[in-house]
Amino acid sequence: VDKVAASGGYMIACTSSPGHLFAAPFAVLGSIGVVGQTVNVQKTLEGLGVQPLVFRGGRHKAPVGLVGEITEEGLSTVQSM
Questions:
Q1: Fewest C-beta atoms under 10 Å: which of 11, 18, 27, 42?
Q2: Three-point CA angle 20, 22, 25, nearest 5°
Q3: Is 4 helix (H, G, I), strand (E, B) or coil?
Q4: End-to-end CA distance of the chain
């Protein structure tokens, strides 16, 4: 892998030489979309008197994130991706 390999590129790189994956030291590689994790600190910040404001460009942009209310709709959107 020379620069970037994600998802399909990562899969192909893994099959090139069983048990070995060769990548440049500056390459970025990984599988996108298999596992997504986040921590939501909304309640912690509110407990400290901080009111985070979240601005989104659309209903489905960043449905779940570091701050902001976690809704059933947001969780459903993320889980359907």
A1: 18
A2: 135
A3: strand
A4: 27
Catalytic residue among 3, 7, 43, 76: 7
7 in catalytic set: yes
Number of helices followed by number of strands (H, E) in the chain = 3, 2
Q: What tokens does 59 get?
A: 């209903």
61 counts as catalytic: yes
Tens digits of residue pLDDT in 37-78? 788 999 999 999 999 888 888 877 778 888 888 888 888 887
21-34 residue pLDDT tens: 778 888 887 766 66
Question: b/e string for 30-39 if b means 16 or more Cβ within 10 A?
Answer: eeeeeeeeee
Q: Which of 16, 43, 61, 76 is catalytic?
A: 61
- How far apart (Å, rounded) are the C-alpha atoms in residues 30 and 34? 10
